[in-house]
Amino acid sequence: MKRNYYLVFLVFLTFFIISIITNILGAINPPVAESYNLNDFMRGFLPMALFLAYGVMAIPGGMLVEVHKEKKTMIGAFILVLAGVVFFVMIPKFSVFLGTLFIVGAGFAMLQVVIYPLLRVAGGEEHFAFNAVMAQLVFGGASYAGPHIYKYFVLNLDSSAEKPDFIIRGMSRLVPEGISWLSMYWFFLIITLLMILLLFASRFPRVERTDEEQIGAWSVIMQLFKKRIVNLYFIGIFCYVGTEQGVSYWISTFLERYHGFDPNTVGANAVAWFWGMMIFGCVLGLVLLKLFDSKKILLGSVILSLICLIVALFGPGEIAKWAFPAIGFTISVLYSIIYSLALNSMEEHHGSFSGILITGIVGGAVVPFIIGWLSQLFELRFAMLFLLITFGYMLSVGIWARPIISNKTISLKRKKG
Length: 417
What we know:
The chain is 77% helix and 0% strand. It has 417 residues and is an all-alpha fold.
């Protein structure tokens, strides 16, 4: 099929919207807790509601797209997201917020199983690896931009000065006083609605799914779950996503509680840079994966991440506010490496195995919740040491992994003449 750059743009735009809505939770964590008078245990329910839906809907979403195809599934997913957001901005209660996050997560899980095969077809198979990396860079860029958009809304809405532009003046009429962070969900409402209209007006190619992209019957999936290697890699993805969200979700709260930093400025910046540093880490990772075995890179990345975590938790404030974003840099390649090691360790049923691995995203629901629960029993600093367990498991992957196919590297040694 001839390359369709417009559809590649649509896929990148979808990645942007998924990222900016999903990863804003870390920046808005402190003001949400203040608005609803939440303790750390209750805060843990926010990422749980969102990422639990990812885990629940990943495999059914793959089966759904086989029936209704890409365009209808994407439109349906975005309508689901829009409905959840509209419900919340109309009734901004905590219980409604939890329901909204679950609905949004379900919609995004459906989108996840559509956009990669669509990107392969629209961008050309020979360019798929490059475009997939570009999609991850867009994802990271959106996560970086979200906290800055949040700062723009909140600082202007909370200011007693004259509203600087028509956007802020409009938001001030929509957002009740005292919950200026709700402005982000009005923003999400607008961009989701525009995306639905854009999808309705777009033409989609026919996508023939490869074995790696098809999710098989439940019987195949259940059979795979009986394999030890499948469960080991499922836990690996679970630990990665749990670690990523366990760090990003609690950064702003940690910096406010232990170092007195304003969550709407310094805290939001730290969360933004956590995701921003992932972009630089991905670029460096692409180079390193051409030079070294992926297992060695995994081991080195985890060890550096552990050092950054200890420094962030026990170092002074000025160092902590940069040590947390540094974790984003050091973990940036871990998901891709664990995922590729997993697929390269199986000879068949790659599509069903991929669905199981995507279900591991549920780790983003469980780990932040555990940290919040432990924080109630001890304190947040020691609760975040739970991440030593998830990092430890990922470290073990680099030791026991035995892929059938290893990543191809470039030899720097000159041949003797």
